[in-house]
Amino acid sequence: WREVTVTLGKVGSTIDGLMERSRAIDVKIEEFEHIRAGSDNAVRKLTSSSFTQFVISALVLLIAVGGAAINFNLIALPMSEMVGGGSYIGPYKTSSIAAMVIIMVEAAMGLYLMEALRITNLFPVIGSMNDKMRMRMIIVTFGILFILASVEASLAYMRDQIASDMQALRNALAAGDLPASSQSLIPTVGQMVMGFILPFALTFVAIPLESFISSSRTVLGLALQGFLRSLSFVLRLAGNIVRGLGEVILALYDVCIFPALWIERQVRVKSRGHDLNSTGERIR
């Protein structure tokens, strides 16, 4: 009886969990029915939810852009030692373009890694791969990210060395002698850690990017709808103004032309009366 009591207690807790889940499913089904029916309440909820996701993901993407800018500044200067500081591709330095390409490759590898882990679903082809292929892709993308992060750490170390050498050269040119270098290793280590961590941190940009893309459709649709409504209001207002202005101009024209028409009428009446009098005298 004790075992039966324990078993019945487990069955009761399971049934309670099923009831809670069924109530949650009923709520979701009701919301889905409202969405299918196109009710105003459902449309407002979807709009507010999409707008909230759009704003939050945009803020996170702005933070990611700031991190990418810091990462760019860490590797742009030492890249000039690798690709040449005097070479240009168009109006831009080759070192700046190379640093930007490295950051973009890191972002792409992070996006592919998130897709292979099935955290995001921007590329359904990657998510539909079998587990073996996805594991290979995870290993490859993580390995590329690790190599690029190590390269950025070494470039950050080179940047600190180049900056210290340039500062020593400026001091030597200003004072006339070369001062002794007594620089702490803390900034160097900090830059190397940042150069190694930032590529992995930029990997998680794929999550707000997916949310931004999915919510931007609704937000852009609402913005386009508001623009078209504003444009229709402006055009309708302009049409009414032009029509009223035409009526006012026509009334002013009537006011201006009335004296001339009255004088012409009087002249015609007098000339007609004069003709009738002359004709009567001839008949007599």
Placed side by side, the strands forming the largest sheet appear as 1-2
- Beta-strand level of the residues, as a percent range? under 5%
Number of strands: 2
Helix-strand sequence: HHEEHHHHH
> Largest sheet, described in full?
2 strands, antiparallel
* Alpha-beta content class: mainly alpha
Could you please describe the fold and organization of this structure?
By secondary structure, the chain is mainly α. The protein contains seven helices and two strands; from the N terminus they run ααββααααα. A two-stranded antiparallel ribbon has the order 1-2. Helix 2 crosses helix 3 (94-116) and helix 2 (40-83) packs across helix 5. The N and C termini lie far apart (148 Å).
Characterize this entry briefly:
With 284 residues, the chain is mainly α.
Keywords:
284 residues; two-stranded antiparallel ribbon; 87% helix
Give the SSE map.
Elements: H1 2-37, H2 40-83, E1 88-89, E2 92-93, H3 94-116, H4 124-127, H5 131-175, H6 186-203, H7 206-283
Antiparallel strand pairs: 1-2
Helix pairs in contact: 2-3, 2-5, 2-6, 2-7, 3-5, 3-6, 5-6
